[in-house]
User: What shape does this take?
Amino acid sequence: MLLAALASWPYGYYTFLRLVVTACAIALVVVEYQRTDKFSVSSITLIGIALLFNPLIPVHIKRDLWALIDVACAVLFAIIGVRNYLADRLVTKH
Assistant: This one.
């Protein structure tokens, strides 16, 4: 969804994107905290992403900067997802 946001969509898409990104960021923070019992750098970064994308108090940024943020967040979500997947595989192997 973040990469699809680089195209031109109706405003409702971006509102829905904010909701989804905020929910996913919060969910990942909860998962990481449950696994480690602490807030890591990635957890704090995800909290920042949740605040930036929150649909209740929207942050208004120019479209060009949003495009960079969308790509960076997509890459970050992919990295965290792969890391969590690999960490789960290591736990289940032992």
In short: The radius of gyration is 15 Å.
